């Protein structure tokens, strides 16, 4: 998931973080820098990893560990400048995530207003991640509950570099989201990306749809989708590696509806990986979910995903069930326990819950994870 989550933030005066780096635009204008973060770790049991059971210390089960800075500068007249720098890391060994980047999760600067919308520039989430990520069950449960191989990227396998994003103001519940990622090369379409989407929010109803296209992704280290931050070489179906795609397209739509203590969700995403040799590796993910607040401190969640995959005349499918409980010890700290089961068709040959260290030696895989998360 790893979606941006900011817990109980604390503000530092500008003098505590380089007062000279930000300017007050007009008399009485307010500026601030917020330091925030999440630390999350636990223990994961898997019944079958290449034929053996495994107990492992794992980090980032519910939320990817991070620390970041969010700055705003009130320029007056309703206009604000802002920036975000967000580092991701592995809590178990301290190693930087996202290919070792200092601010691999997000790094951008922008300007906008409630009336005109906001433009941001830098390393960012694309529109599919922004809109559909929050609807997926992994936004509530552990990230293992995402779709196989994170084929639709809504669990943030990769971000978009060199990106210019515009998010419109909300008008009668409608809000647009547009992004373009530059290739930064003379071949304009070599490793560029664009995405677009729309959301509608009214009371307990939230509806969204989005599309993203990546041209020659991972063909360079400097393009919109860098080669050191794309799918691993082990992510493969029918002998075809996702990382070898010359074009990737993602589309989808979903909705959530809250009533009383329950929230119901439906989500569909489709992904095409077009290959240099011709043809495409295709995925279709159909997900239903329910989240239920048993008490102000205790939440239960259940999700089911059916994933179809095909390449030419070859096809297969996955069934996956994810369930879990989250208990808030405070506004900042929670504990959780989740269980996950995946069943792959015989045409695929083996199950592999996304995020588990290795595939099963059979067509089924079962995992349990328990952990502790703290936000600051």
Automatic annotation (TrEMBL):
GO MF term list: porin activity
UniProt-annotated location(s): Cell outer membrane
One biological process term in Gene Ontology: monoatomic ion transmembrane transport
Keyword Signal annotated: yes
Residue stretches making up the Porin domain: 21-343
Domain of life: Bacteria
GO cellular component: cell outer membrane; pore complex
Keywords: Cell outer membrane, Ion transport, Membrane, Porin, Signal, Transmembrane, Transmembrane beta strand, Transport
Signal peptide limits: 1-29
Topological type in the membrane: Multi-pass membrane protein
SUPFAM superfamilies for the chain: Porins
Quaternary data: Homotrimer.
Record-given protein name: Outer membrane protein (Porin)
């Amino acid at each position: 998931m790893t979606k941006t989550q900011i817990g109980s933030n604390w503000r530092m005066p500008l003098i505590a973080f380089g007062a000279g780096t930000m300017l007050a635009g007009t008399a009485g204008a307010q500026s601030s820098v917020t330091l925030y973060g999440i630390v999350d770790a636990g223990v994961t049991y898997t019944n079958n990893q290449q034929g053996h059971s495994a107990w492992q210390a794992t980090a980032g089960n519910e939320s990817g560990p991070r620390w970041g800075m969010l700055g705003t500068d009130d320029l007056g007249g309703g206009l604000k400048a802002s920036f975000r720098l967000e580092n991701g890391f592995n809590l178990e060994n301290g190693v930087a995530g996202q290919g070792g980047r200092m601010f691999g999760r997000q790094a951008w600067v922008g300007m906008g207003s409630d009336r005109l919308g906001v433009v941001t520039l830098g390393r960012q989430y694309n529109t599919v991640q922004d809109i559909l990520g929050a609807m997926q069950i992994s936004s509530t449960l552990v990230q293992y509950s995402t779709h196989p191989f994170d084929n639709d990227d809504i669990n943030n396998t990769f971000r978009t570099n060199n990106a210019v994003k515009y998010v419109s103001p909300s008008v009668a519940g409608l809000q647009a989201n547009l992004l373009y990622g530059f290739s930064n090369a003379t071949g304009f379409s070599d490793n560029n990306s664009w995405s677009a989407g729309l959301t509608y929010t009214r009371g307990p109803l939230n509806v969204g749809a989005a599309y993203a296209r990546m041209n020659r992704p991972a063909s360079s280290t400097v393009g919109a989708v860098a080669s050191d931050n794309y799918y691993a070489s082990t992510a493969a179906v029918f002998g075809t590696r996702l990382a070898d795609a010359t074009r990737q397209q993602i589309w989808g739509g979903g909705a959530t509806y809250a009533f009383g203590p329950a929230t119901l969700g439906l989500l569909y995403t489709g992904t095409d990986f077009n290959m240099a040799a011709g043809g495409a590796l295709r995925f279709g993910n159909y997900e239903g979910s329910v989240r239920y607040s048993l008490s102000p401190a205790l939440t239960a969640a259940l999700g089911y995903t059916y994933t179809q995959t095909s390449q030419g005349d070859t096809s297969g499918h996955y069934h996956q069930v994810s369930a879990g409980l989250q208990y808030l010890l405070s506004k900042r700290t929670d504990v959780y326990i989740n269980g996950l089961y995946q069943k792959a068709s015989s045409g695929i040959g083996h199950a592999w819950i996304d995020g588990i260290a290795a595939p099963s030696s059979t067509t089924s895989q079962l995992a349990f994870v328990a952990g502790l998360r703290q936000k600051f």
